[in-house]
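Problem statement: downstream parser choked on a complex file, so we are re-checking the raw output for the NAI run. The parser issue turned out to be on our end (a line-ending mismatch), but while we're here, posting the original submission so the record is complete.
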Amino acid sequence: MSIAEKFVSMEYGPAPEDPKEAQLWLDRHGRKFSHFIGGEWHTPEAGEYFDTVDPSTGDKLASVAQGSSADIDAAVRAAQAASPNWRALKPHLRARYLYNLARLVQKHSRLLAVLETMDNGKPIRESRDIDIPLVARHFYYHAGWAQLLNQEFPEHEPCGVVGQIIPWNFPLLMLAWKIAPALATGNTVVLKPAEFTPLTALAFAGLCQEAGVPAGVVNIVTGDGSTGEALVTHPDVDKIAFTGSTEVGRAIRAATASSHKRLSLELGGKSPFIVFDDADLDSAVEGLVDGIWFNQGQVCCAGSRLLMHESIAEVLLSKIRDRMNTLRIGPPLDKAIDIGAIVARVQLERIERMVAQGIAEGATCWQPQVVLPSRGFYFPPTILSNVHPTSIVAQQEIFGPVLAAMTFRTPKEAVELANNTVYGLASCVWSENINVALHVAAQIKAGVVWVNCTNLFDAACGFGGYRESGYGREGGREGLLEYMEPKWFKRAPKLAAALAPPHSESQEMADSSPPLIDRTVKLYIGGKQARPDSGYSMEVRSRDGALLGEASLGNRKDIRNAVEAARKAESWAKATAHNRAQVLYYCAENLALRSEEIARRLASAVGAEQAKREVELGIERIFSYAAWADKFDGAVHNPPFRNISIAMNERIGTVGVICPSETPLLGFLSLAMPLLAAGNTVIAVPSERYPLIAADLYQLFDTSDLPGGAINIVTGYVSQLLKPLAEHDDIDAIWCYGDDATVASAKAMSTGNLKQVWTNEGRAIDWFDPSIAEGRWFLEHATQVKNIWVPYGE
Ligand code: NAI
């Protein structure tokens, strides 16, 4: 074709990136890779290898070691051995190592980008301009945190040895998201890359050697799910950080339930991309290109559900189709390619299957006329319209370049549709009206909201999910907290196994025999006292066995009623922080007014001295959270773009609380108050030893203007009430204070809907020490951070 003809047709010619350096790198390693353990290459114990292939051709790139539990054990031992020196290292020196890694990523950026594209199939344009620069940014940013650690987190220490498992969609970027904060905070790591894409992690191991990172600080063990499982179940791993499918996240939650490993999960999503009728439609279409066709749609936060204001739906769909016609699909090393290869045949087949199912369920499928390369794994950009909100393609993660489009009529309906998913990872809102955009952003249940922008990521801005998209954040100050614990926590003594409450016999309330004592404490649901569904009660006795009274024996039905009441207590959720503070101050005032009588009654269970202290400190604790209610602010992060991200500390929702037995009043207040201060509604099971405290508490709440349903109290046995709390789909989190067995049950029972579980890990918390038992640590768990990105600046 002549230049003149090209000028007329404006056809793209081939613009391949040269893979020579990457091929040489593979050759230098003999195209065969071992594990990286203790700073050295370590042949797999079982001698097994698997192939990693180039998805754009299906050709083998290299053999990679298949990690066994023996390999994982060797890596964990290396990480343990390196831990004392690494955590004791002067923060400035740790910062220097991270800084070195950032410099080396930049120095080798071309090799890393090409290798990433060869192993994963993503367009070189993306690996070169997005993935690798963000990797470097992560190491720079966290080098900064390493430097500032002691000043900013003087009361924290690292978790220890961290096991990290990452997926194949952003192989090196996910490694950076995991390793940079872990190292900055003084942890040592064992990382398992995804089996489809191990190469850049192995290249990174080489960078660790080049940077002089001490042996054992970073260990990389390659392999499949079984290798991941061995890491998850290794007894000497202190924390697991996982990114991947919700299904595997659930398996990891179950596998770690009876251990004290900390867990952060970044799971799937079905993120809404909402376009209002006043949006700049052309910008929204460009946003959508990044939202769903970036990385072939293999993005956990992909804007895979398009929600269109009905009045602009046809125009928007037509603009989208026009734009889709211009997307170029083909060999990912070509610099002018928009859509590369799907990572593996199995993923391609999954996409094909789901699209076929969506069509069978009534969706209309449109794809541009493109010729797919004859080799490799490719799927054309696809839009499914007329999708029913319950269709599989509207509900399940497709993880491919497939958009499911639906319409809405009002902002309210848009929010309902947006939240009509078990996930809650990310969302986009397009509107030129700032009021509409921010009003909707506040109502979406997702960890990230992009206003008039899409898929922006930065090390300074937390990322992570609500609901079944997981828990924990990566990036920003909030991400660092995932890798540290308060210093006192690990040293806290074990809580003795729960003593059976002094008495457990129950008797029917309607028993005709005269009551031994005229005090039967009812449940407190929706601001009213309620008789238990069972009609039974439990006897409560003093330490020396005297009968003090009876408490209602709550059951599953009572928990259901309490959840319903909590969900209806909208006015508490919507109250301003100032109002919440006022109500809590009022609670404290009322406790002060009645302190003597409450202490007198409590004394019968815990002794006069403890009762007095519980009441005195209880007043202080309520005051403290009243003070915090309007001060636990979020932050404004400053990414290096023309945006800011507003990190809001949002309420979690409805939280079930198992309160400590041994400090009936103070323990209850220490857990319920931070939750209320943050705007949550609560269903609390008070001390099993002395549930009669409920009567004093509900009088307190009744007289303090706390709206009905904001707090609900269900007395009874933890062994019977934990399960309905943990399994209830409308309870968003469980706080469980108890012995090892109780907290393990709380975690195991919450696996189904992956609700957040926060426990004392079977340790005794000194509720009488305010430096331990109140403040930020509790508030951080009472909230979840939502990052709202908005355009800002020149
Ligand atoms: P996956 O969740 O199975 O793999 C992610 C990582 O977990 C890999 O390193 C894998 O080896 C490891 N793994 C697998 N089973 C494990 C176990 N029992 N214990 C510990 N580690 C284990 O994801 P997969 O199979 O590659 O993709 C399936 C679907 O998952 C995708 O189609 C997509 O819908 C979703 N997915 C979501 C991702 C996200 O970022 N949210 C990332 C990758 C996949």
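For whoever reads this later: Confidence is low (pLDDT under 50) at residues 499-517.
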